[in-house]
TrEMBL record:
Gene3D superfamilies tied to this protein: Dehydroquinase, class II (3.40.50.9100)
Its job: Catalyzes a trans-dehydration via an enolate intermediate.
InterPro entries in the cross-refs: DHquinase_II, DHquinase_II_CS, DHquinase_II_sf
Superkingdom of origin organism: Bacteria
Organism per entry: Actinoallomurus spadix
PANTHER family noted in UniProt: CATABOLIC 3-DEHYDROQUINASE
Active-site annotation: 22 (proton acceptor), 99 (proton donor)
Pathway annotation from the record: Metabolic intermediate biosynthesis; chorismate biosynthesis; chorismate from D-erythrose 4-phosphate and phosphoenolpyruvate: step 3/7
Gene name tied to this protein: aroQ
Subunit organization: Homododecamer.
Family statement drawn from the similarity comment of this UniProt entry: Belongs to the type-II 3-dehydroquinase family.
Official protein name in the record: 3-dehydroquinate dehydratase
Keywords noted in UniProt: Amino-acid biosynthesis, Aromatic amino acid biosynthesis, Lyase, Membrane, Transmembrane, Transmembrane helix
EC code: 4.2.1.10
């Protein structure tokens, strides 16, 4: 079955963006890893990235309407977007919040996530592995629920 892997602002710039924090691999490599991992788990990953809050909201609505599980890195929206939170709250399928870095170990403003309270769970601090672990969690949850 299908899973959305949705990425918020600035994540398309992986590889050149603060490589000391986010690593040297680019978004294309992350996309390939997610697709391969999903395939290995018997899933199909639809990987998307946007810098536009409205576009991310429309993808979350699409996931809610289609009952499609989501791996979401909301990037900076994590810390202030009540609109992203409200969109996530509409879904019924699992949604895992992921972060490459560990926001709890960084600046104060990153310590709060306004989306964590409506996510199924959160995986942070493992770089690209955060996405692999989240896809594994989705696969387990789908298997448990018989999907
Ligand atoms: C991030 C952490 C956020 O605080 C930051 O704004 C990002 C990336 C991460 O994956 O570590 O853009 O979500």
């Amino acid at each position: 079955s299908e899973v959305f892997v949705l990425n918020g602002p600035n994540l398309g710039r992986l590889g050149s963006r603060e490589p000391d924090v986010y690593g040297a691999a680019d978004f294309e490599a992350l996309t390939a890893l997610c697709r391969d991992t999903a395939r290995r788990l018997g899933l199909h990953a639809e990987v998307r990235q946007t810098d536009d809050e409205a576009e991310l909201l429309s993808w979350l609505h699409e996931a809610a309407d289609g009952r499609i599980p989501v791996v979401l890195n909301p990037a900076a929206f994590t810390h202030y977007s009540y609109a992203v939170r409200d969109a996530i709250a509409q879904r019924t399928a699992p949604l895992i919040e992921v972060h490459l870095s560990n926001p709890a170990a960084r600046e104060e403003f990153r310590h709060n996530s306004v989306v964590a309270g409506v996510a199924t769970g959160t995986i942070a601090g493992f770089g690209f592995l955060s996405y692999v672990l989240a896809l594994q969690a989705i696969a387990e949850l789908l298997a448990e629920s018989g999907n």
